[in-house]
Design a protein that fits this description.
Elements lengths: L2 H6 L6 H18 L1 H4 L6 E4 L2 E4 L1 H4 L1 H4 L4 H7 L4 E3 L32 H37 L1 H15 L3 H11 L4 H28 L3 H8 L4 H37 L8 H9 L5 H29 L1 H9 L6
Antiparallel strand pairs: 1-2, 1-3
């Protein structure tokens, strides 16, 4: 194998991929440490009752509805360490304030801190995307592998709903579920996105598993009495792990954009970038807040797409074969 072919399978071989990884790392940092960057409650309180840490997470209800003056009075006798911005994404102050130390990106037309909205919007985008992705990949592998290995009626029971779900765009599935489950927007979004991604993964796994079922070593394993679960573990999963991982990486930016798009269209997700964009572009809204959220979404999605392409290039055998056949002088 030449040095060139070695380079085609190394993750992060290009500057573009490393930049995308940095962007995604910044997004993950904002999501993980959101309360360190913007929150209503103190990070650390040292008082007569001892040391309390991360009150925005551990005692969220204690500060709900309190004004900043009331919070200051509550800790007047304590030593307090505050987050970078003393404002959560839902705290309402004076509308349309200019950028300052207290509000680094100002406030929107409702009086909400733009910086806090961007930080907690990063958590909304990343956490929802990753949780839905993990669930849908696990279900897709199990359903697709089960349908192919068991076969018969069970294959039909699994395959037909997959085809029905994939026949409709995800937005249509969300609309149908919203009509049947009013008042449960977050659950509707989760069910719709999970169903769509599960069907996609299950289709790929089922197709690959049906091919494997005709191979001699799998036929021999079934003749010796191997269960469908063992066949999936020993034969199906090692063969589909690379393509499924590449598909999962590609799904992350798609889910981030779709979550923001559905929030923009009216799904009730208060901390989503899509909600900030919708409110900002509404009559009387803050165009600056909308522009900031849109910029965050575009940068994050672009970085995630580049990173997904890099993961797909490394993990998907077909991509590696295409790279190996590429002319030596090609860039």
């Amino acid at each position: 194998m030449t040095s060139r072919s070695h380079g085609t399978t190394r993750f992060g071989a290009t500057r573009r991929a490393r930049t995308a990884a940095l962007v995604f790392a910044l997004l993950a940092s904002c999501a993980i440490f959101a309360e360190l960057l913007a929150a209503d409650a103190p990070l650390v309180v040292v008082g007569r009752s001892g040391v309390e840490v991360m009150l925005a997470i551990r005692q969220r209800a204690r500060y709900a509805g309190l004004t900043r003056e009331a919070i200051d009075e509550l800790h007047a006798a304590d030593q307090v360490l505050w987050p970078l911005v003393r404002s959560g994404p839902e705290r309402v102050t004076t509308p349309r304030l200019a950028a300052s130390l207290e509000h680094p990106l100002g406030t929107d037309s409702d009086g909400r801190d733009v910086f806090a909205g961007l930080v907690h919007g990063a958590r909304s985008a990343l956490v929802r995307s990753l949780v839905l992705l993990v669930v849908s990949v696990a279900l897709g592998v199990l359903l697709g592998g089960f349908a192919a290995t068991v076969g018969g009626l069970w294959d039909e029971v699994v395959a037909r709903p997959i085809e029905v779900i994939q026949a409709f765009p995800t937005v249509v599935v969300v609309a149908i579920l919203s009509a049947t489950m009013p008042g449960h927007s977050a659950w509707v979004l989760g069910l719709a996105l999970t169903a769509a991604r599960t069907a996609e993964v299950a289709r790929v796994v089922r197709t690959d598993a049906l091919r494997l079922m005709t191979m001699d070593h799998v036929v021999a394993a079934r003749a010796l009495g191997a269960t469908w679960w063992r066949i999936i573990q020993r034969h199906v999963w090692p063969d589909v792990a690379g393509p499924v991982a590449a598909m999962a990486a590609t799904a992350v930016p798609a889910l981030i954009v779709l979550e923001a798009s559905l929030a923009f269209l009216g799904v009730d997700l208060p901390t989503s970038w899509g909600t900030m964009i919708a409110k900002g572009f509404a009559p009387g809204g803050s165009s600056w807040a909308a522009a900031a959220a849109l910029t965050a979404l575009v940068v994050t999605a672009s970085g995630a797409w580049v990173l997904a392409a890099e993961v797909e290039r490394v993990l998907n055998p077909r991509s590696q074969r295409r790279a190996a056949r590429q002319p030596r002088g090609a860039s």
